[in-house]
Design goal:
This protein has 453 residues and is of the alpha+beta class. The chain contains 15 helices and 22 strands. The C terminus is likely disordered. It binds adenosine-5'-diphosphate.
Length: 453
C-alpha cells in the first residue's frame, strides 16, 4: 500500500480523497493555489504545497509544479480527482515516468476513451449500440452535411476532445448545420486546443443513464449499477440518483453486462463510467466513457455500501477488487443535489464571494460532501460547486422526502446558491414521478404545466 498520496486537485474531491487516505492510514499531501490558501483540504492534509497563482494553468493544471510537489514531499502516488488533469493522458504518463503511481487507468486507456470518435468505434466493435453518426472526425462541413442528410435531422455536432458539455451544437436542418459546424469547431478549439468534431443523430428526449465500472489488475471487471443523470442544464448535471427510476432489474443486468464487456475490450483498470442515452422506447446507445471518479459517485456508494475512492486507491496499489459481481448488492435509493455558488434566478450566473453563515443539514440518510465553512470565500477562478447534498432512503419516496427536508434545513448566507432551484425541482410532480429526460430543467424553468407536487 502507498505511504503518501498527493492530491492533484482542490475543493470537495480533495477532501474526499484525504478522508479515504486517512481511513487507509496513508499520509496526504495537498496542493493549493494562492487563492486556496484557506481551504479545508489544505488544513486537513498532513502536508501542503503552494503550487502557484490562482489561474488553473498556473497551478492545478501545471504539471511540472505538481510533480515537483510530489518529489519534495516524497509522495509515492498521485490522485487526480475529477476535472483539471484527471483525464489528461500526458499527465498520467509523466506521473509514471517520474516514478509515481497514477491513481486511475493507464494513459493508453485515457487516450483511447478521451478521443470520443475512437471510443465510439472501439465500443461498436465490442458490440455496444452507438448513436448513429460519423465513423470518426469530420473533415469539413460538406462531409457533415452529406452524413446528416443520410442519418436524418436533427443531429448534434460534438467535440472529439469534449467534456463538461462544451463544444456541442444541435442542428435541426441544413442551414443550422452549416452555421453550427464552424461554431462547434471554434468552441472545441478554444476549450480543448483541438478543433476536431464529429456528428451524431440527436435523440429528442433522452435520459442520461450511466454505469459505474471498476477493474483491477487481476482481470476482474464489475459494474456497480447505474446513475440517472437526466437533470441537466446546458448539458451539465445538477441532480443524480441511483437506481434510475426508469430501468428494470433485467435492464440493469443486461446493460451492466454490456458495459462490462465494453470495458473488458480495453482491459479497463480502476474506476470508470460508461454513459448511455436511453430513448423513450427503451433503446439505448453508448455515448462516452469517463476515465476517472465522477462528481456523482456518492449515490453509488450509498446504494452499494462500497467506498469508491478507497477502492480506487487499493486497486492502484495492486490489490484485487473487494467484491465480485455476484457480491454486489443494491439497497435503497440515493439522490444527490449539486450545490453551486450560482444565482439561479438570474440565469445561474456565478456568485462567488464570502460565505458569512453556513449550516449543514443532518439526520438519518443525509450526507454533505463539501469543502466550505462560514467565513470561507468562494474564489471566482474555479468550478462553482461548493458542495454535494446526498440523501439516502430505503426507497425513492423516502430519499426524496429526506432531500426535501435537508434543502429546507441548509443555510448558506453571503452568496447565492442553487438550493432554491433544487427545492423547485425536487417538489415538481414530474420529478416526483420519475418522469424526467434531459430537457426537464428547460421545461421546469419555463414553468410549463408541471404542477407543484
Ligand atoms: P460531455 O463529455 O461534454 O459531458 P457528453 O457526450 O457526455 O458530453 O454529452 C453530454 C450531454 O449532452 C448528454 O448527457 C446529453 O444530455 C447531451 N447529448 C449528447 N449527445 C447527444 C445526442 N446524440 N442526442 C441528444 N442529446 C445528447
Amino acid at each position: 500500500m502507498f505511504r503518501k498520496v498527493l492530491i492533484a486537485n482542490r475543493g470537495e474531491i480533495a477532501l474526499r480523497v484525504i478522508r479515504a487516505c486517512r481511513e487507509l492510514r496513508i499520509a496526504t499531501v495537498a496542493v493549493f493555489s494562492e487563492a486556496d490558501r484557506d481551504s479545508l483540504h489544505v488544513r486537513l492534509a498532513d502536508e501542503s504545497v503552494c503550487i502557484g497563482p490562482p489561474p488553473p494553468s498556473q497551478s492545478y493544471n501545471y504539471i511540472a509544479r505538481l510533480i515537483s510537489a510530489a518529489e519534495v514531499t516524497g509522495a509515492d502516488a498521485i490522485h487526480p480527482g475529477y476535472g483539471f488533469l484527471s483525464e489528461n493522458a500526458h499527465f498520467a504518463d509523466v506521473c509514471v515516468s517520474c516514478g509515481f503511481t497514477f491513481i486511475g487507468p493507464t494513459s493508453e486507456m485515457i487516450r483511447r476513451m478521451g478521443d470520443k470518435a475512437v471510443a465510439r468505434r472501439t465500443m461498436r466493435e465490442a458490440g455496444l449500440p452507438c448513436v448513429p453518426g460519423s465513423e470518426g472526425v469530420l473533415a469539413d462541413v460538406d462531409e457533415a452535411q452529406s452524413l446528416a442528410g443520410s442519418i436524418g435531422y436533427p443531429v448534434i455536432i460534438k467535440a472529439a476532445a469534449g467534456g463538461g458539455g462544451r463544444g456541442m451544437r444541435v442542428a435541426w436542418d441544413e442551414k443550422q448545420l452549416r452555421a453550427g459546424f464552424g461554431i462547434a469547431q471554434a468552441e472545441a478549439g478554444a476549450a480543448f486546443s483541438n478543433d476536431a468534431v464529429y456528428l451524431e443523430k440527436y435523440i429528442a428526449r433522452p435520459r442520461h443513464i450511466e454505469f459505474q465500472l471498476f477493474g483491477d489488475g487481476q482481470g476482474h471487471l464489475i459494474h456497480l449499477g447505474e446513475r440517472e443523470c437526466s437533470v441537466q442544464r446546458n448539458h451539465q448535471k445538477l441532480i443524480e440518483e441511483s437506481p434510475s427510476p426508469f430501468l428494470s432489474d433485467a435492464q440493469r443486468r443486461s446493460v451492466g453486462a454490456m458495459a462490462v464487456k465494453g470495458a473488458q475490450a480495453i482491459g479497463y483498470l480502476n474506476a470508470g463510467t460508461m454513459e448511455f442515452l436511453f430513448d423513450q422506447d427503451g433503446s439505448f446507445y453508448f455515448m462516452e466513457m469517463n476515465t476517472r471518479i465522477q462528481v456523482e459517485h456518492p449515490v453509488t456508494e450509498e446504494v452499494t455500501g462500497l467506498d469508491l475512492v478507497k477502492e480506487q486507491i487499493r486497486v492502484a496499489a495492486g490489490e484485487s477488487l473487494s467484491l465480485t459481481q455476484d457480491q454486489v448488492e443494491w439497497r435503497g435509493h440515493a439522490i444527490e443535489c449539486r450545490i453551486n455558488a450560482e444565482d439561479y434566478e438570474h440565469g445561474f450566473r456565478p456568485s462567488p464571494g464570502k460565505i458569512t453563515y453556513w449550516y449543514k443539514p443532518g439526520g438519518p440518510g443525509i450526507r454533505v460532501d463539501s469543502h466550505v465553512y462560514a467565513g470561507y470565500g468562494v474564489p471566482p477562478y474555479y468550478d462553482s460547486m461548493i458542495g454535494k447534498l446526498i440523501a439516502y432512503g430505503k426507497d425513492r419516496p423516502e430519499a426524496l422526502r429526506r432531500m426535501e427536508i435537508a434543502l429546507e434545513e441548509i443555510i448558506v448566507e453571503g452568496i447565492k446558491t442553487t438550493v432554491p432551484f433544487h427545492q423547485l425541482a425536487i417538489r415538481d410532480a414530474r420529478f416526483q414521478s420519475g418522469d424526467i429526460d434531459t430537457h426537464f430543467v428547460e421545461a421546469l424553468l419555463k414553468k410549463e404545466p408541471v404542477a407543484a407536487g
